Amino acid sequence: MLKNLILILLQASLLLPAYGWGFRKKNKSKSEEPKPVPKPERTIPEDLQILMDSYSDIKIQAEYSEEKNDWIISFENYGTPQIFYWAEGSVLPEEELINRENYWHVVYKYSNELRDPKTFTEEEIATLKEYGTVKNRKKAPGTPMFFFDAVYASYSRAKIEPHIITIKFLGKGTRVHERILEPLKNVEAKILEAEKKSPEVKTFIKELKSAAAYNWRQIDGTKRKSFHSLGIAVDVLPVAYHGGEVFWSWARDKNPERWMMTSIKGRWMPPKEIIDAFESEGFIWGGYWAIWDNMHFEYHPELINKLKKE
Fold first, then answer.
1. Which residues, in sequence order, are bridge partners of residue 247?
2. CA-based Rg of the chain, rounded to a whole angstrom?
3. Average pLDDT, the chain
4. Rounded percentage of the chain residues whose pLDDT exceeds 90
5. What share of the chain is helix, strand, coil (3-state, %, to 5)?
6. Is it the case that residue 123 has pLDDT exceeding 80?
7. How far apart are CA 250 and CA 127, in angstroms?
8. What stretches of 29-102 show up as alpha helix (H) in DSSP?
């Protein structure tokens, strides 16, 4: 009897350590292990997506940075890697983030409707008058050029000029950036097609004096580069304005107090078919601006694409 009891205790001493005397915790199954918290899905802002789609040949990438709490935009163009921050739409290099209040958004609502100056309030008139002063234009926010400099290699005159080409537009010699060659050819083809049906378009072509584009210079009254410096803006000037005003600054020189009230009929304008042809290929018209420039067309497919979505 005693011998059997000793044998039972000996067997238990060998088995119980392996089972922890019944208190050994079971290994947690994989389903019981804490799961990593997935990162919230981020949707690319609509305006950023429009910008990316408008320059799709450059293959722009956008990735959200939790650390920076912003979208980081990267691409390579003309052999140079580029990195920008979305910065709520201003598209800035990191060192300019602290100055974001000095810049407009790159993608904004382009209004292609003429507003009759008769509808301006006195407050709007005062604002336009103030904006037209040299002092105000120097300190006012403006377009951030960083993204466009990367797209067109326009960091300096020496950098951009290898990409400027000489072409004919409606029979006039001009110099433009190579990136807008095809859109501008398409504009010309549409204008020549419209000429067959429109006497106004035929007169416009006949009276066209020049189609000046590339000109390395600053915007009048500011320290910012003009888009003419990038070779993506075209000024279509006629031989005669037929008594109409063509540019707000020239009108201001004649009438400093009320230049902004120049009537629609009192301005020289290209025919609507001309404006439509440019817009259909990604150009905006300066005649729609409150600070109007009726001879001016500027290549901004991102603005035309945003307009199409609205």
1. 293
2. 32
3. 88
4. 76
5. 45, 20, 35
6. yes
7. 18
8. 46-54
Tokens of 72: 């980081």
Nearest to 267 by CA among 296, 298, 286, 241: 241
Q: CA torsion sign, 173 to 179 to 182 to 183?
A: negative
| Residue whose tokens read 């729609």 | 288
Evaluate whether 258 touches 122 at the Cβ level (below 8 Å).
no
Tell me the torsion sign for CA atoms 274, 276, 280, 284.
Answer: positive
Specify the amino acid at residue 246.
Answer: V
CA 146, 150, 151, 155 dihedral sign is positive
- ∠ CA 236-240-245, nearest 5°, is 75
Amino acid at 46: E
Give Cα separations from 278 to 75, 164, 190, 238 (angstroms). 28, 20, 9, 17
d(CA 236, CA 94): 38
Q: How far apart are CA 43 and CA 295, in angstroms?
A: 39
β-partners of residue 74 are 61, 83
Read off the amino acid at residue 154: S
CA distances from 60 to 52, 66, 67, 83 (A): 6, 20, 21, 10
HEC sequence for 269-295: CCCHHHHHHHHCCCEEEHHHCCCCECC
Record the pTM: 0.85
Could you give the CA distance from residue 151 to residue 179 in angstroms, rounded to a whole number?
A: 9
Residues 195-226 have pLDDT tens digits of 999 999 999 999 999 999 999 987 766 678 99
Rounded Cα distance between 284 and 297, Å, is: 6
- Least confident piece of the model among 86-90, 209-213, 253-257: 253-257
